[in-house]
Amino acid sequence: MATEPPSSGPPPRAQRAWRAACPGCGAPVEFASSASASAVCSFCRSTVLRDGATLRRIGVSAELFDDHSPLQLGVRGKHQGVPFSIVGRLQYAYADGTWNEWHVLFDGAGADGAPRAAWLSEDNGAYVLSFDLPTPADVPPLAELHAGERRLIGANAWSVASVVRAKLLAAEGELPRPPLMGTEFTVVDLRSTTGEVATLDDANPTQPAWSVGQSVALSSLALSGLRETSEKTLQGRTVPCPSCGASLSPKLESTQSMSCPQCRAVVDLNSTADAVGVDLRYYAQNNSGPGGLEPQIPIGRTGRLALGDDGPLDWQVVGYMERCDLPLPGTDDEDDEQTFWREYLLFNRTAGFAFLVDAEDGWSWVRPMTGVPQVNGRGATWKGAAFRQRYRYAAKVTWVQGEFYWRVRRDERADVTDYDGPSGGKMSREQTGSEVVWSLGRTIPSTDVAKAFNIPAALHGAFSRDSSPLSGLSSNLGTSIGSGGSSGLSQGVIILIVVLVVVVLMARCSNDDCDETRATFGESSAEYQQCLRNQRSSGGYHGGGGSFGGYSSGGGGHK
Questions:
Q1: Are 160 and 147 a contacting pair, CB within 8 Å?
Q2: Is the pLDDT reported for residue 536 higher than 90?
Q3: pLDDT in tens, 399-411
Q4: Looking at the structure, do residues 254 and 209 belong to the same domain, yes or no?
């Protein structure tokens, strides 16, 4: 990431500032902007309001949820050549996680002579720089808006990306208005075909707030003064698994769900408003238990890949999931064969999250888009590139391991539409309840993936799709792998068992119509085993689907 050289002293101070003593503890509270109406004392966390030449204490802010953000108060940067400082922060929560709004103050004044301020929204590593604007007269009641619909607001066409209920958790630093702590309100994110992001919220019931911005990359802001830690870990934070009692040690503060390394139960780490570890909700996965195969890329492994415009970055595998398709009734693919695929959740400190997808047609990567494409029938256009719809189906989560920044639910489903584009480009639309996420990616050779994550050459064949999903393997092998302390079996022994099972299944079939599938994907692949099962039962689905996936909340909208 391109950053300014670190300075030898503290960041430059504002040319004009106003300072007074906190009425709660006496510590100095400084205002760099005359437009700032309130601040949060960094010592006692009192929320103070400017009242002439004095400060008035109006409340106390909760402790901030210390996440993995590289940003902090005092960070300096540039946007379109204009220097700015981060002077404040608001931290919000909704049902599936948290996000930050950083108060940005630009040097100098605007054309009207007033200070120039903006919000740098941070949601799971995606960033949007937006500005508060007068609310358009044609804004509809927020209760009427639903994810996926299109609305004309302020003479522009917008696609509703999400509608959530949220509340302000905590605040720090200098703010343009007093924070309203704990009050729940509705937040609507909207996206345009030009890449703009707009936000409506009714935190003030008498006047909805309206802001408009664009997605930005931290690497484009010439930042200095970032947190020095290369990654944020939870020192000493461990909780017992509510299923088996094993110790769970999440590595990221933003983790909402994780799987138990011993019993494979999926634990909701944010299922209680009290201390973590009290009354945690969980569910046992089908076919869970020790002794199953591990993901082909081990959880925790780091690889260097170029996933988009950021160039080569170090990506760490923090989560793994398997999904299958459930074709939508009434579509052309309703009678198609069911397909399984795998998704690795990757994390980079400055670039956020991405997905590495291992599907029947090879490997690809995907990252959330900020805007929405122009959709016309089965075609879609984004930044001049034409995409064509390939599949439309429902996707269901069948198995997870590792950590996730959203709450993974049993048999979690999403309505998915996949598009193919030029030069291996891929685009996908996923809708889960009150949220729609568009993602953009590209195919990637399996050899590049294996090389990036230092996979031994002897296993490169499995990377070419000759491998079984963890859930499918457990259901086929039952206790032959999961009993008798077999967790120490070598990979060669496990592969031999899989091959033997496939041979037995083949012997039971009088007419094997799966030779082409076996030749394409390998004897131990999920596709081949599914073909054998379908052949025995003469039921199920037939054909393609499920070639692309990935779920991501938010995408960095200003909420």
A1: yes
A2: no
A3: 888 888 877 877 8
A4: no
Among 343, 408, 340, 318, CA closest to 550: 343
The domain boundary residue, chosen from 192, 220, 248? 220
Residue 262 has pLDDT above 70, yes or no: yes
Task: Record the tokens describing residue 506, joined without a space.
Answer: 């083949």
- CB atoms < 10 A from the CB of 26, how many? 11
Q: Name the residue among 542, 546, 552, 322 with its Cα closest to residue 417.
A: 546
Please name the amino acid found at residue 247. S
The torsion region of residue 463 among left (phi > 0), alpha (psi -120 to 50) and beta comes to alpha
Task: Give pLDDT tens digits for 172-202.
Answer: 888 888 877 778 999 999 999 998 999 999 9
Q: What are the structure tokens assigned to 58, written together?
A: 């109006």
- Same domain as 385, residue 244: yes
Rounded Cα gap, residues 102 and 266, in angstroms = 32
377 plus 513 within the same structural domain = yes
Task: Please name the residue that has the structure tokens 């997808």.
Answer: 357
Helix 526-537 and helix 491-508, axial crossing angle in degrees, nearest 10 = 20
Q: Which residue, 56, 24, 58, is CA-closest to 41?
A: 24
Cα 520 to chain centroid distance, Å, stands at: 32
Taking the C-alpha atoms of residue 326 and residue 337, their distance in angstroms, rounded to an integer, is 9
- Other CB atoms within a 10 A radius of the CB of residue 278 amount to 11
4 belongs to a structural domain: no
Q: Is the residue at 360 inside a domain?
A: yes
Asked if 264 and 360 sit in the same domain, the reply is yes
Tell me how far apart the alpha carbons of residues 250 and 112 are, in angstroms, rounded to a whole number.
49
The structure tokens 């909700």 sit at 281
Amino acid at 378: R
Residue 11 lies in a domain: no
Place of tokens 């990506």: 315
Angle at 447 between CA 445 and CA 453, to 5 degrees: 110
Is the sign of the CA dihedral 386, 389, 390, 391 positive or negative?
Answer: positive
CA angle 77, 82, 87 (to 5 degrees): 50
Residue 271 DSSP label: S
The answer, yes or no, to whether residue 549 has pLDDT greater than 90, is no
Alpha carbons 546 and 534: distance in angstroms, whole number: 17
- What is the extent of the structural domain holding 99? 18-220
Cα distance from N-terminal residue to C-terminal residue, the chain: 26
Look at residue 293 and tell me if it is in a domain. yes
Q: Per the structure block, which two tokens stand in for 403?
A: 């950590």
244 and 212 part of one domain: no
Which residue among 220, 249, 268 closes a domain? 220
Q: Are residues 255 and 372 in the same domain?
A: yes
Determine the average pLDDT of the residues in 514-519. 60
Q: Which residues pair with 239 in a beta bridge?
A: 248
On the question of pLDDT at 15 being above 50, the answer is: no
Name the pTM for this structure. 0.69
Tokens of 412: 């979690």
Residue of 327, 286, 263, 345 whose CA lies nearest to 470: 286
Same domain, 216 and 261: no
What is the total count of domains within the chain?
2
Same domain? For 236 and 201 the reply is no
- Select from 285, 264, 289 the least CA-distant residue to 398: 285
Is 557 a residue whose pLDDT tops 50?
A: no
